[in-house]
Amino acid sequence: MNLEENKTEERQVSPETVLKIFLVATAFVGLAGGFSDSILANYFKDAYAVNAAQRGFIELPRELPGVLSLLFLAWLSAFGNLRNAVLAQLLGAVGLVVLGLFRPSYAVMLLFLFIFSTGVHMFIPLGDSIGLSLAQRMNMGRVMGRINSVRMAFLMISGVLTFVGFRFGWFSFELPAWVFIIGAACFFVVGVLLVVQRRIGKDLSDGPVEQTKFVFRKAYRRYYLICAVFGGRKQIMYVYSPWVLIDLLDFKADTISILAVVGSLIGIFFMPVVGRWIDHFGIRRVMTAEALAFIAVYIAYGFLSRWVNNNAVVLTGIGMMLVYLLNIVDRMSAQFSMVRSIYMRSIALVPEDVTPSLTLGMAIDHVVAIVGSYICGLVWFRWGPEFVFLIAGALSLVNLIAAQGIKEN
Q: pLDDT by residue (tens digit) across 42-96?
């Protein structure tokens, strides 16, 4: 009898209560990102003195998990989204702890970077799927905007702490690298919160457990194209946009962190707005506006990087402010990821397709990212950074064309 009462009580947990737990977990995801992913480029430069071509090669072990996650999550699909999300957090924590406590050889560093990145990439589709499962009982665009806004808020907080830590010498990449150890602790906390969420609200947030092992449907081909385009553009955004600052302008981790803070601060208010735009204007118009904006951003970035690389200008005052502005706006591109997730949810033929399709989409974008990163590294090295950003602008143009074929329900 007590068992039946407990089951009844579990079913009575409101979606809003479960959402609040997930929002707290999302907050720690943001903190973990600020203490790890956002400063890895500086870590590679300071600890291993990599050049632009090597920086591109590092993206192989860093982005390969985005492809392999398709296989990992297919093998583990019977465990459900929440259990797999907990595993993802543990992998992220393990990889980051090793980077924080040891200065391994270059090859061993790549191995643990791979482990860390596997956890991060596994959680991307899982986190979106969990959020969509909760949001489908409410106003989807607004709820997803709320989730992403919380993540950005705490990414900003960790960015502030990272900036202060590096500026005053509390953080460094000397051992032990406390910034990475704190990030690992945040990953662990996320795992604990997801365990709690599963115990009290599994039915509300886990989605269908009996998922198709692999989904590739003709009906989703436009989604796959959009993911492929994003993969190439994203890699330029994550790798080569900050590399202009780090390699050409010699910006340190504190400056990169404060730019991330500003981008996150804007994102706190911008993500709910994007959610409302999706609900009000529809996915096609929002995606069109995104593509047009970033065509302009990458053209401007291309000209600016050419001038800096050729020593045609010495950036001060307005010129430096323009660099900051372009970097911050470029970071906003990642904040449109929920548009693609909501689009996938809107075209899904059955609910069971959502998580494996999001995972396949991520795998596609990472295949393009891996290949594109290596190619862009060679392009940068042989012809100059401006051609890398012209490639990004061309990809944004393809995204614009693809968006025009989206049919709203």
A: 788 777 877 666 666 777 788 788 778 777 877 877 788 888 899 999 999 999 9
**CB 85, CB 196: distance < 8 Å:** no
User: Which residues touch 237 (CB under 8 Å, ≥6 apart)?
Assistant: 330, 331, 333, 334, 392
Cα–Cα distance measured from residue 240 to residue 41, given in angstroms and rounded to the nearest whole number: 10
Which amino acid is present at 264?
A: S
Other CB atoms within 10 Å distance of the CB of residue 32: 29
Please state which of the four CATH numbers 1.10.760.10, 1.25.10.10, 1.20.1250.20, 3.40.50.1820 is assigned to the domain occupying 13-403: 1.20.1250.20
Question: DSSP character for 102?
Answer: -
User: pLDDT, tens digit, for every residue of 100-130?
Assistant: 898 888 888 889 999 999 999 889 888 888 8
Q: Is 384 exposed, middle or buried (0-12, 13-18, 19+ CB in 10 A)?
A: middle
Whole-prediction pTM? 0.66
Q: Which two tokens stand for residue 5?
A: 């009462």
Per-domain residue ranges for the chain?
13-403
Q: What is the dihedral of CA 60, 63, 67, 71, to 10 degrees?
A: 100
